[in-house]
Write a structure and sequence with these properties.
It contains 13 helices and 15 strands. It is of the alpha/beta class and 367 residues long. The protein has three domains: 100 residues, Translation factors (Elongation Factor Tu (Ef-tu), domain 3); 91 residues, Up-down Bundle (NADPH-cytochrome p450 Reductase, Chain A, domain 3), CATH 1.20.990; 143 residues, 3-Layer(aba) Sandwich (Rossmann fold), CATH 3.40.50.80. Strands 6-3-10-1-2-7 form a six-stranded antiparallel β-sheet, with helices on one face. A five-stranded parallel β-sheet has the order 13-12-11-14-15, sandwiched between helices. A two-stranded antiparallel ribbon has the order 4-5. Strand 4 and strand 5 form a beta hairpin. The longest helix is centred in the C-terminal third of the chain and has 16 residues. The chain is globular. The two termini are 32 Å apart.
Length: 367
């Protein structure tokens, strides 16, 4: 049996790709469907896949120009110990967004003395800007490969069920860009998936990252509550596809949040079709809909009494998305509504939520 992993990925292609956000949105979110090979790694809803992407073509060309190399030169990868053209090495193997201290040393540039100043210097530039400013002559080719860190996989939650869509994996991908000085940079994996890769042609290397901690309940009649603002909704699309395909009798409740209902309501038609069939209870929070911002935790609070009833009836509580702020706010709100509607003290509410986690009924996939 073939084992697919980071050093031995499976190869997919893009079957379809389209924007989920409207023209008036401040974001750019895409639905991407990968067509899987005949022999493919097994996966379950709740799992993620690691995408081994390519750097931006234009960025690589600019870097080669700054290095004064054609890209046809053969170099040795210090990590894999194989030889390949420099262009391919820069395109597929290395992180072009982070300036490595070894590249600075190779260019014979003195960095500031204190650790804080060195960190500030490294973070203020990327390899391309640094080379343009500090490397008029070609750097030694044999030493160059070790001056770049590895290009790491980018993980995406699987947004489809293999039962409903065998031979495919759906992803919900946010397209990102940022600036360094006057230079525009794009997120590597999302640019690769949403722009650079050609539909039906470009190989997409991937492997499955199992998420044993983030799975559906064993019992099909168990209620599930899902909190997934933004692209955090992706695994819950897979959850619902699977549960409905299996004719599960448990109730489903989704809390979805974004900025604008008109432009940012991802998979709106699918959710509404489930609501009409009485397969889903849907609560939404569109933060820019009024002067006072309204987020998923506020929607939870507004439905606190019913949400607590679902928990008391054995419901599972899932959260997916931003760990820095959203997950903390949702957790604080959960404690608050448990205390209020369970008539518990703060300490008792804390124990209640802790018991949900211990029972595997409070599950998070946050990043």
């Amino acid at each position: 049996m073939t084992v697919f992993e980071r050093n031995n990925p499976a190869m997919a292609t893009i079957e379809e790709r389209y924007p989920l956000t409207g023209k008036g949105s401040s974001k750019s979110i895409y639905h991407v469907r990968l067509k899987l090979p005949v022999i493919t790694p097994p996966f379950s809803v709740g799992d993620s896949i690691g995408i081994l992407s390519q750097n931006d073509f234009g960025h690589v060309s600019s870097l080669l120009e700054a290095l004064n190399y054609s890209g046809k030169e053969i170099v040795k990868d210090p990590r894999r110990q194989d030889s390949l053209p420099l262009h391919q090495y820069l395109l597929e193997r290395v992180n072009l967004a982070r300036l490595n201290p070894s590249l600075v040393r190779l260019a014979a540039i003195e960095m500031s003395a204190t650790p804080e100043e060195r960190k500030l210097f490294l973070n203020s530039q990327d390899p391309l800007i640094f080379l343009r400013n500090h490397s008029p002559a070609p750097l030694p080719l044999e030493l160059l490969p070790a001056c770049f860190g590895p290009l790491l996989p980018r993980f995406y939650s699987i947004a489809s069920s293999p039962l409903l869509h065998p031979g495919a994996i759906d992803l919900t991908v946010a397209v990102l860009s940022y600036t360094i000085g006057e230079e525009t940079r794009r997120g590597v994996a999302n640019h690769f998936l949403c722009s650079q890769a050609k539909i039906g042609k470009t190989p997409i290397p991937f492997y499955v990252q199992p998420a044993h901690h983030f799975a559906l309940p064993d019992e099909p009649n168990t209620k599930i509550i899902m909190v997934g603002p933004g692209t955090g909704v992706a695994p819950f699309r897979a959850f619902l596809q699977e549960r409905i395909h299996l004719n599960s009798t448990g109730d489903h409740w989704l809390f979805f949040g974004e900025r604008h209902e008109e432009h940012d309501f991802f998979y709106k038609d699918y959710w509404h079709s489930l609501v009409e069939k009485k397969k889903l209870r849907l609560s939404t929070a569109f933060s820019r809909a009024s002067h006072e911002k309204f987020y998923v935790q506020h929607a939870m609070e507004a439905e606190g009494k019913e949400l607590f009833r679902w928990l008391e009836e054995g419901g599972y509580f899932y959260v997916c998305g931003d760990a820095k702020q959203m997950a903390r706010d949702v957790d604080a709100t959960l404690h608050k509504l448990v205390a209020l509607h369970g008539k518990l003290s703060a300490e008792e509410a804390k124990s209640y939520v802790k018991s949900l986690k211990a029972a595997g009924r409070y599950l998070t996939d946050v990043y």
